[in-house]
């Protein structure tokens, strides 16, 4: 398989039939259009690559991915066509990771948020370093939690915990995320990649029909809840044209609490 010359993705082979994808963009691996698009589409190529039996996705440096780039988010609010492109890629991050037949392991080496968190948690097996933090900050910015959470969090950790963290945007440590079922496992920082590669190598040598068809069957839980995901994506993007997003983004930049209108007609 010939992969494109990606601007913000680095590919290597840490074990036989194991492809590692490393997100690499700036200090925090924030998602501009190219990274957001490429991390959505690469899973289709991996699905068709006969040399890949398992994939690992991680981040370069001390971040997994901080999620959306604020310059990109600001453009969405004023450019309908660009919003549609970003919305399609947000949907396809979830859809393509779900339908990729090969097992995917996320090695969460640092903070993961927004679209980066979607990549981390849509992996079939998620491994977090103890120093990693997870946060879904959509509602803090003034939009609905649309990247992935409404679809998968209730199945992973239950409705009560999902609403608590999605309403408050409180960060979770990797250890707490493992405890409530949001992560598959949590390991010491210096053991993260070693653990991910060893597990990927093990899965890569497993029976393809057994592993891939089991993934397909288990992901039917996601498929039957797909209308929930579509609604969350629609509400998220509608929020980009509403009154709360500018205040949410500005307060984040100024590192202060947002001052939303408490008498919203919603």
UniProtKB/TrEMBL annotation:
Root EC class: lyase
GO molecular function: enoyl-CoA hydratase activity
EC code(s) of this entry: 4.2.1.17
Keywords carried by this UniProt record: Lyase
Matches recorded under InterPro entries: ClpP/crotonase-like_dom_sf, Enoyl-CoA_hyd/isom_CS, Enoyl-CoA_hydra/iso, Enoyl-CoA_hydra_C
Family: Belongs to the enoyl-CoA hydratase/isomerase family.
Name of the protein in its database record: Enoyl-CoA hydratase
């Amino acid at each position: 398989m010939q992969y494109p010359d990606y601007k913000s993705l680095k590919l290597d082979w840490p074990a036989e039939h194991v492809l590692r994808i490393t997100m690499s963009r700036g200090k925090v691996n924030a998602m501009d259009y190219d990274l957001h698009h490429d991390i959505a589409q690469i899973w289709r190529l991996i699905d068709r690559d006969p040399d890949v039996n398992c994939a690992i996705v991680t981040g370069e440096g001390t971040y997994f991915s901080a999620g959306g780039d604020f310059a990109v988010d600001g453009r969405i609010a004023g450019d309908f066509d660009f919003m549609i492109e970003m919305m399609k890629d947000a949907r396809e991050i979830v859809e393509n990771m779900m339908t990729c037949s090969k097992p995917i392991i996320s090695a969460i080496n640092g903070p993961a948020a927004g679209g980066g968190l979607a990549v981390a948690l849509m992996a079939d097996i998620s491994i977090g370093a103890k120093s990693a933090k997870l946060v879904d900050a959509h509602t803090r910015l003034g939009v609905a939690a649309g990247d992935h959470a409404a679809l998968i969090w209730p199945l992973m950790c239950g409705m009560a915990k999902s609403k608590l963290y999605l309403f408050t945007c409180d960060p979770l440590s990797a250890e707490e995320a493992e405890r409530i079922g949001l992560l598959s496992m949590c390991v010491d920082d210096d053991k993260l990649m070693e653990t991910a590669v060893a597990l990927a190598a093990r899965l890569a040598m497993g029976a393809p029909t057994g592993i891939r068809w089991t993934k397909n069957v288990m992901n039917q839980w996601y498929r039957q809840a797909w209308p929930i995901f579509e609604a969350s994506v629609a509400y998220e993007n509608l929020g980009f044209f509403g009154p709360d997003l500018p205040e949410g983004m500005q307060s984040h930049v100024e590192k202060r609490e947002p001052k939303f209108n408490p008498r919203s007609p919603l």
